[in-house]
Amino acid sequence: MAKTKYSKSELKKFEKNIYSKMNDISNNIEAVRSTTSSNSSVFLENNTEDHNEGTEAHEVEKSFLLMSRESDYLMNLKKALQRIEDGTYGLCEVYQNDSTKCECPDSPLIDKERLLEVPNATKGVFCKQKKKLNLV
Ligand SMILES: [Zn+2]
Question: What is the pTM of this model?
Answer without folding.
Answer: 0.79
